[in-house]
Amino acid sequence: MVPEVTTALRQNLVKVPEVIKQASGIIILGKKIRSIVFSTDIALIRNINADAVLAVYPFTPHPAIMQAISMSADIPILAGIGGGLTHGERSMNMSLFAESLGSLSVVLNAPTPVATIQRVEEVIDIPIILTVVSAKTDLAPYLAAGVDIVNISGAAATVEIVKSVRQRYPELPIIATGGPTDATIAAAIAAGANAISYTPPSNGALFKAKMAHYREDANKEID
After folding, report:
1. pTM score of the predicted model
2. For the chain, first and last CA: distance in Å?
3. Element (H or E) spanning 222, and its range?
4. Does any domain span residue 5?
5. Mind telling me which SUPFAM superfamilies this protein's record contains (predicted)?
């Protein structure tokens, strides 16, 4: 049994599912990563026991957002630098900024041109992660250009994509979305995922549970 030490004000820590410990993990620049929280919520990032944070979001990457997360996080950051509408020189510049802020790696979205991977590879000295959304993606040119890790995010098809990629590339480090249950997480690990990205409850859902507890205590005092 591993001893656990906490404090009075840190007992509401959000915990990633225990099943993620079944994953082998990926050692990135000396740090072993199994569980990765998918969030840009600074308050949540500061209060979760994940090994790293996947800081990607559905907007053009911006230095101010990256800096805010970097200043607040106490776990390694896998920093999104575009790849969809944002690519080429802007992604290259964002990769340099991410490295300067101490990010553990950079993440590019599925439609990233191979030429963008090449440009990023030329200027940074941290690993490149490519998000993969289809088993039909030809990974060979991306790996040749400098991709080190793939992040598989295929919704209901994630497990099948993981299986397909693992069969073609037995040694390739794979991160995969875990899905909503322990069973879906276990299936992704069994298919070949080395690390799991976990989407935590929203700030609203967490606050709802806490407020219900506060109301219960308040009503007890009245009684």
Report:
1. 0.92
2. 41
3. helix 203-222
4. no
5. FMN-linked oxidoreductases
- What is 104-158 written as a DSSP string? SEEEE-TT--HHHHHHHHHH--S-EEEEE--TT---HHHHHHT--EEEE--GGGH
On whether residue 6 sits in a domain, the answer given is: no
Nearest CA among 69, 56, 67, 177 for reference residue 109: 56
Q: What is the CATH number of the domain that holds 98?
A: 3.20.20.70
Predicted confidence (pLDDT) at residue 218 exceeds the cutoff of 70:
no
- Domain hosting 107: range is 14-222
Residue 142 maps to a domain? yes
Domain count of the chain? Answer: 1
- Residue 34, domain member (yes or no): yes
The band of 214, judged by pLDDT with boundaries at 50, 70 and 90, is low
**pLDDT interval class at 10 (50, 70, 90):** confident
Reported as a single tens digit per residue, the pLDDT across 143-171 is: 999 999 999 999 999 999 999 999 999 99
CA nearest neighbour of 52 among 102, 122, 124? 102
